[in-house]
Input
Amino acid sequence: MKLATLNDGTRDGQLAVVSRDLKTAHLADGIAPTLQKALDDWTFIAPQLDLLYQTINSGRGHRAFDFDPANCLAPLPRSSARVAGVSYLQQIERACKAAGREVPADLRETPRLYQGASDNFLGACADIELAHVEWGIDYEAGLAVITDDVAMAATPDQAQMGIKLLMLFNDITLRNVAAEEAGTGFGFLQAKPAVACSPVAITPDELGDAWRGGRVHLPLRSSVNGKLAGQPNAGADMTFNYPQLLAHLCRTRPVRAGAVISAGGVANKEVKKGFSSIVDRRTQEIIADGAASTPYLQFGDSLRIEMLGDDGKSVFGAIEQNVRQFDGRRARPA
Amino acid sequence: MKLATLNDGTRDGQLAVVSRDLKTAHLADGIAPTLQKALDDWTFIAPQLDLLYQTINSGRGHRAFDFDPANCLAPLPRSSARVAGVSYLQQIERACKAAGREVPADLRETPRLYQGASDNFLGACADIELAHVEWGIDYEAGLAVITDDVAMAATPDQAQMGIKLLMLFNDITLRNVAAEEAGTGFGFLQAKPAVACSPVAITPDELGDAWRGGRVHLPLRSSVNGKLAGQPNAGADMTFNYPQLLAHLCRTRPVRAGAVISAGGVANKEVKKGFSSIVDRRTQEIIADGAASTPYLQFGDSLRIEMLGDDGKSVFGAIEQNVRQFDGRRARPA
Output
């Protein structure tokens, strides 16, 4: 099933079920008011949402309406846990090569995860508002899972059962700020200001055979200013799968319903598939040409991130964002 | 005013107003069901909660009942943002000295903050359940603020207006795991499994003159197995105050209502005030005696963390926890 959260002026929005073809939607107001409420009691709520999903897919739902991604908040506008893993290690390996650094010895043994902001996930069409292009504004196209409760010390198999939904993720990153923060040992804070999510989150069964081994085996297409920048396959070269990332997180603590676990910018070994971030492209430029030539994003630039199924149809809808200069005057505290 | 969240079997619990002397409580069910709901609309809700607070302080509230910290969840059982600052820098300076490392040049110029788990804040009397003492189980006694919305690029003065509540914080830390994670540059994940909070969160006005300069000028008492381990003053040697920590966080992003910002284990320059964590005591032992002699926590150990006002009365109630071995058999995913 496919779920979206409509902007009704509240912080958590209003849960809606969206048809498989992303054309129509139906409020889930009789079932669960918000996605977090649904996740809080998923075993009970999910079958009811699925019934509604079947109804609108068959064209029956008499209160169905046209689905408009521009009217969506993130499927889960805020969450009590967000952990970002880096599972496409060729990106790190390329960066080490370009910088003449050694690849960490345990890179392929121990998952690397950091905790990030989860109080303000952006909708698929929300502007990226930032103050300075000098920060090195970059996108990072990837995926994330949303979990149910997962117990402390869960194995990867147990963790896999806790994965309830998937969505696309644009992990907006300020590369020049990240370079400053990398040395502190405290992880990334100012360098990771926001994440935008696809219009819908989907249950893994929507992916059919493309969901196997805890990975999504489909290409993730990202474009900058209308030009295709990359279409690497999200399953091909993913070292740690989602259950492994989740089990790593659970080693010393339980995880509660609504946790969002991403796996980093999708990257393949073959660079001809393109890149899911500007920094990865710049890294390859340094390796090939001795210097980076692609600039980071400028105000006015536009992004599009989308995943198509084997049938050529959009699975999650598209993230479509413009980069815009933050105007402090209209954003003071209430 | 003082607020608590009672355990009613739900994830977010039930909001209650607690009398100044922590003796009686009254459900806030007619005003806001949960603390997050109150924070989501604080300007409208807070005055109503305050009226109820005045009523129970005067002994009138006809549905008031005895307040029992053992029946509390954390005041905010889950939050969409938790950022931990390290503002008691003498602890870092001592650690550098003990390890023969140089103190980072910008330590007193740039706040250091990392993002931590916020999906499972523990109640004041919840057991600390962990699998292995070999992880180096430690407490870290400190304070945290809970915020309203704070805009991107807010100044410290603007950020100060966003601070709505304060509480005590036990930031449970696995020191031997932290040592492994420190080198990754990704911050702390498995090393920071849980946080326990005081029974009540309070509005800053409850502190009177002890809340000044964005700091709490009172000693924070922590005991291990009934023996006083430290009573450093939380205001005396706090380098970055809460508004500065919050403004640092807001440099590139807005912060949404319910964010929890802590300032690290309280420490004073004068070591005779004792310590707010075992690691800080061990550091001092290394400096003074050449080797650490105090062990980390063992299963069965107990902790108590409390702050007394100038009148000798408990301000937040006490965090009172026992360390217990995690029993995986009774904690599988649902």
Remarks:
- Residues 147 and 164 of chain A are 5 Å apart (CA to CA).
